[in-house]
Amino acid sequence: MKLVDYFLIFSFSLPLLAQAQAGLALPKEIKIACVGNSITYGATMENKERNAYPAQLQEMLGDRYVVENFGVSGHTLLKRGDRPYWKSDQYQKALQFKPDIVFILLGTNDSKSQNRKYLGDDFETDYKDLIASFKKRNTDVRTVLLLPLPSFSKDSVNIWNPVIKERIIPLIQKVAYKEEKEVIDLYQLFIDQQDLLPDGVHPSSLGATIIAKRLYEVVMQEQKKKTLDLKNEIGIELSYDSNFHGFAQTSFKFKGIDCKLARPRKAAKGAPWVLRARFWGHEPQTDIALLERGFHIAYCDVSNLFGNQEAVERWNVFYSLMTKVGFSKKVILEGMSRGGLILYNWAEQNPEKVAGIYADAPVFDGKSWPGGFGSGKGNAKDWERFKKAYGLKSDWEIKTFQGDPIHKIKSIAQGGYPIFHIVGETDNLVPIAENTIPFEDGVKKYGGNIKTIYKPNNGHHPHSLQNPTPIVNFIMSTNQQKVNFAIVPAPSAEYRSGAGWTEGSDWWTQVRDIDSLCKTSKDIDLLLLGNSITQGLGGNRSHVSYQPGKVVADEYFKDLKWINAGISGDRIEHLLWRLRNGNYEKADPKTVVLTIGVNNFPFNSAQEIVAGIKALLQQAKEMFPSSKIMLFGPLPTGTEKDSRQRKKYRKIHNGINKLSFNERTSYHEVSKLFKTGSGKLNPELYSEDGIHLKEKGYKVWIKYMNEKLD
């Protein structure tokens, strides 16, 4: 398609709840087909019927959706492969299902030595035929192509990662581009998580959770309807499309300046976009992940201007162009290395237009680089260009020059936008001691919002992260588009032998045990809801082997009828799911104790955890209308007073303290019971991990709880 005739057309869908509240008719049941090989089927996985990613996706989406697993082990996309998916019964069943959405995860087995000779035109043609076969059954089907997971197998004859990465993934991206289909990069989500692929190929149940969550985001993403006519609206001449990792990329001239725009298949609500400085296409994993999520990625060339006023003016004009077309009034700025100069000089002059900044090994001081006046190597040729860009001629002008971002920290910090940096600790080209460190210290001093990931044993290169998830989460949060999974009820896929369970039992065993206790017990005084800390109290749980608090609980609760409903590893969303799908209300407890949240720390922000606890508290109030509810949230965590864990703990409890409580609900922040005079967690009460209680710690907690119950 010629881009002079190109229209950006987006579709809009109200969330189901909003449609219901507006009195609109709810859509029909949505059918989702998961087509794939052994990874979809759930091979090698404990309890695959419940833990394979289609099953987990079903539980997360709920009753408005029907998710079916059409995975079959060992099969290829290639028709001439050794075991073609085309000849399987599951393929025929998938067609008969007539899905509204089909996720295709094939290609892994095509990397085997016997199938490699057919990679190329055969693979591309066969993939197009597969897409067409589903469209023939349902002309409105939404087809989403999933890139294969990496393989960590050392067997080059069978499934082989170099073939997956260098041949199969580019072919799938090519098909996505030509067929105008969505493509989701699962490869990058696992490239740094080999432990989630125990045999090097197949995901564990926890790995399946990652896939299920990503597909949940795809299904639930809100989209915006907007028609944008670049040619007629602006009068610019567009070139033909090119393939940017499966997405359409437009190149064009604007005011004589080279510009680029990579476009998502479906634009996100609000038409968010990224303005990238320099090095277009280098380490593209973040840009690819954002395109998947509906962001546009834009580029306006400011090469060899080093962030000077001419560069700022170019971006001013380009920003006006983009917002005139209909893109968000607030833009994400992204830049690597010297790109930091234009990012921050533009942001300093346009704070109201910035949603957030992601900078990678950024330059803040021209005298550091390219000048080389400090400990860095510098670059003589670029230093001459830098001086020319800023009109610096004399030594005095150079010495007194303050046009760099390093001299504008206060006004940048006061801009109010969040900042995210990734830097190498051993960078000797753009030394962090002369750039990011003084900048970060200054931003914090003036009350700004900045987070930095310091990569050990990493120089100026490589940029970015292999798995861009932390960067993507930051950017999605700036646009309030990150899914808060703490409020999405979901079963756990926990399987660890270290969970304190008896041999052969899993999370679902614990769920059944607790549910049985709640259904059969009468006149319950106390129902304890939580994670491993609660589980450690013991009680009548036949499949729990590790109970460090049992002796204490038996002593203090000896006159009570109580149920221990704590499960090791549980996060807020898991407990939400248990409450909504169990029979806990049949126990009709006089008092309910909620102690949850610490397992969410690695996955959710403090704000997200507070939102999850708020949802859980509301659920408990509705389920137990005559019960007293004691909310602890997460118990104290973080061994040191100023550790990252402790700081997050304080943020969470500051948020919980602002929730609404009444005569039936009470809130208990108990850190003072567990701290020493210096603010550390008492080692006599806490394990070395700063999370789990020792027996003496349980005695402190239960004694406090017992006093409140009395």
How are the strands ordered across the major sheet? 8-9-10-12-11-13-14-15-16
User: Can you give the helix content as a percent range?
Assistant: 25-40%
Q: Do you know the CATH topology of the largest domain?
A: Rossmann fold
Provide the structure class.
Answer: alpha/beta
Q: What is the count of structural domains?
A: 3
* Low-pLDDT stretches: 1-18
Instruction: Write down the overall geometry.
Output: globular
Write down the CATH class of the largest domain: Alpha Beta
Radius of gyration: 28 Å
The CATH architecture of the largest domain would be 3-Layer(aba) Sandwich
CATH superfamily of the largest domain: Alpha/Beta hydrolase fold, catalytic domain
Beta-strand segment tally? 21
Indicate the mean pLDDT.
Answer: 93
- What oligomeric state do these chains adopt? single chain
Q: How many alpha or pi helices?
A: 25
How far apart the termini lie comes to 75 Å
Strand content: 15-25%
Q: What is this structure's SSE topology?
A:
Layout: E1 7-9, H1 16-21, E2 30-36, H2 38-41, H3 48-51, H4 53-61, E3 65-71, H5 89-97, E4 101-105, H6 121-137, E5 142-146, H7 161-179, E6 182-184, H8 187-190, H9 205-220, E7 227-229, H10 230-234, E8 242-244, E9 247-254, E10 257-263, E11 273-277, H11 285-292, E12 296-300, H12 309-325, E13 331-336, H13 339-349, E14 354-360, H14 380-390, H15 395-400, H16 409-413, E15 419-424, H17 436-445, E16 450-455, H18 469-478, H19 507-520, E17 526-530, H20 532-535, H21 550-556, E18 562-566, H22 572-581, E19 591-595, H23 606-623, E20 628-631, H24 644-656, E21 665-667, H25 695-709
Parallel strand pairs: 2-3, 2-4, 4-5, 5-6, 11-12, 11-13, 13-14, 14-15, 15-16, 17-18, 17-19, 19-20, 20-21
Antiparallel strand pairs: 1-7, 8-9, 9-10, 10-12
Helix pairs in contact: 4-9, 6-7, 12-13, 21-25, 22-23, 23-24
